[in-house]
Amino acid sequence: MALRSYLSSVQEGQSKMSASLNAAQLVLQKGPYAATCIREWADEYLAAGDLFHHQQGAHPKVHSLFVNQEFSEQYKLWPKELKPETRSPLALKRHVDSVILPKFSVVQKTISETSCYNYMKNWGFMYKAHTKGVYIDGHERPDVVEYRVEWVARMKGYQKFMIFYEGEDMDEEAMPD
What we know:
Elements: H1 2-11, H2 16-26, H3 32-48, H4 69-81, H5 89-104, H6 113-122, H7 142-158, E1 164-166, E2 172-174
Antiparallel strand pairs: 1-2
Helix pairs in contact: 1-2, 1-3, 2-3, 4-5, 5-6
């Protein structure tokens, strides 16, 4: 789309610089570097009639253990062992460094916390502050209201067996009436 926009603008008489910058901003929401790439793509397209398939980044020199099948079975068990509030990139790092990596006897001695964060994000984990809340949904249902009325009546029956404390320091015992 950006290339089409650029070529049509140039064909209408707009300068290559302004046409590529407009295409980069409107289509890609990018800046001057993207405009330079669009001009290079256009030159490539006009010279060959097609865009080449680029191989940049297709062959990484460092392979991640997280792609290894045996390794993935080990670290996928990890979240099930922990409570949700204790799962963190640091906890994953400690687990991988102390439990999983020694099993595989790899040259790599440790994994970074940032890598653990990125992997957890890819697995679908999200950071969320752990809070304890009160669940009150359904407190006005007829069966709940009826149960509370019965409970209060039962407690009033037990009240005659309870000891009450009174006084400024609540140190004096008083029997109910």
